[in-house]
Amino acid sequence: MTNTFLLQDAHAAADLRTYLARVRVVDDTAVRLVAGGGVLAVYSAVLYPRGLLDSSPTILGLRTFAETSGAGFDRVVPPAAISDRLAALDASVDSPAVPLPDSDVRTSWSGIAPPRGGWERTGSVSSVALELTARDGAGEVARAVPENTGDLRVQRVRSEVWSRPLDGYPEVPSGIAFAAASLGFLVGEEEVPLYSSGQWLRASPVRGHVLVRTGRAA
């Protein structure tokens, strides 16, 4: 088993650390790290079904980084574990090697694999519209969920708000906006391309990708 991955430079390490900090605000449970072919793909969960009766869409964030050691692995680990290792790196090292935790964590969403090919462009959406949708939806969630509310109530409210169609895009859940904004994928004003492949949708702003599968996985 590969025990480390090698990033291109210290800037990439800092970029990954920033991304993980944003991930931990949304869901501090797990990230999926997939390395191969010189690329490290870092998946995170924004929303996913929890329980048999939960019809929430699966919404994942994805950032990719150059991986220079040729490592190959597919691991599911706590984001805090990688953040801590990044924080401990020697800043003077140009290509820092990052050790992986000894064991993985379990999570339902990590077994759902988005397609790697077959994507067809279906349109685009303004980053400004995504920002506004994310802001309004986050405000609605905050107003509907009092402090010290149980996890099930929070999940139900988040699912209701982020499952709604994005204004003008009946097939795209609003959670795609929340994911893009909360994970730091939106930079300035841009037209964010939209793609589809089978049961999956993808939005690809400048700094990352949001992958969406509606309903429960088969």
Automatic annotation (TrEMBL):
Descriptive protein name: Uncharacterized protein
Which Pfam families does the record cross-reference, listed alphabetically? DUF8010, DUF8185
Ranges for the DUF8185 domain?
A: 114-215
Q: Which InterPro entries match?
A: DUF8010, DUF8185
| Domain (DUF8010): residue spans on this chain | 2-97
